[in-house]
Amino acid sequence: MAMNGFSWSQLVAVSAASLLLLAILQLGTFVVGKRIGRYNVVDVSWGLGFVLVAFAAAVIGDGDGIRKGLLFVLVAVWGLRLSWHMHHKSAGKGEDPRYVEMLDRAGGNSTAVVLRKIFLTQGLAQWFVSLPLQLSAILGPARGIGMLIAVLGMLVWTVGVVFESVGDRQLAQFKSNPAHKGKIMDTGLWAWTRHPNYFGDACVWWGLWLVTASVWPGALTVLSPVIMTWFLVVATGAKLLERSMSQRPGYRDYQQRTSFFIPLPPTRKEARWLP
Fold first, then answer.
1. pTM, whole model, 2 decimals?
2. Residue 163 and which of 6, 82, 84, 180 are 20 to 30 A apart at CA?
3. Is residue 131 domain-shared with residue 187, that is, in the same domain?
4. Within this chain, do residues 137 and 2 fall inside the same structural domain, yes or no?
């Protein structure tokens, strides 16, 4: 089977540059977090890290220029929006309870523990999830059915960005209204899925993987979107959030009538604000 320009030396060069940039980013984020007294600033660097990897891959890789540029644009649009959203969401607030719990379980908030449990873990996760971007940058152009797969990937990416950005905006607008304090949002996209932003994020990475999979052996990086989806659903995303949300009045009723992750029509024709 043709390898379409695949070169181990090229892949190692792109991957090494990606690791270096992510290490610098995570160390810088740690310094900022230690200075301001909260490590949830790492959430801001999540999207930015992928933008750096996509940029490095586009510059260093000698693969198809059109696909390299396309992937960089797609990742930049998604990643910069997400980083700005996380910055706006966390600015002026305290530490995220997730990180407090994580560090408590790990035995404290010493520098070694913080670096290992938060920043090293995130940096390695970014590197692994971004493997499709790294590999795609050294492969030749898509042809035939591969072109259709790439188009499908862009469509899936578009669905993901819409769900994630619209879901985030709807929730932010809802929370900004003092009358909604203590209430559960179940309108808009939140009437179709309890986690439209996480669903959208998963679609983004499956879409990027499809663009990479349009050329062999790009499809072999399938574990990257699988792992990302696992993060979003199980490890640090939806299920973890639901542990705390399930204690809020009205949330169990919301769970019973609204899809957990994949958007489905709500079980009632009209959604409402729950007490």
1. 0.90
2. 180
3. no
4. yes
Range of the domain at 64: 1-141
Could you tell me the two tokens for 124?
């390695």
Q: Over range 145-166, report the average pLDDT.
A: 97
How would DSSP label each residue in the chain?
---TT--HHHHHHHHHHHHHHHHHHHHHHHHHHHHHT-STTHHHHHHHHHHHHHHHHHHH--S-HHHHHHHHHHHHHHHHHHHHHHHHHHTT----HHHHHHHHHHT---HHHHIIIIIIHHHHHHHHHTHHHHHHTTS----THHHHHHHHHHHHHHHHHHHHHHHHHHHHHHHTSGGGTTPBP-SGGGGT-S-HHHHHHHHHHHHHHHHHHTSTTGGGGTHHHHHHHHIIIIISSHHHHHHHHTTSTTHHHHHHHS-SSS----SSSS---B-
| Same structural domain, 35 and 69 | yes
- Supply 20's token pair: 């270096």
Same-domain status, 115 and 219:
no
**Residues whose CB is less than 8 angstroms from the CB of residue 80 and which lie 6 or more positions away in sequence, other chains included:** 47, 48, 51
Q: Are residues 104 and 179 in the same domain?
A: no
If asked whether residues 72 and 146 sit together in one domain, one would say no
User: Are 146 and 274 members of one domain?
Assistant: yes
pLDDT band at 268 (very low <50, low <70, confident <90, very high): low
Average pLDDT value for residue range 94-102:
74
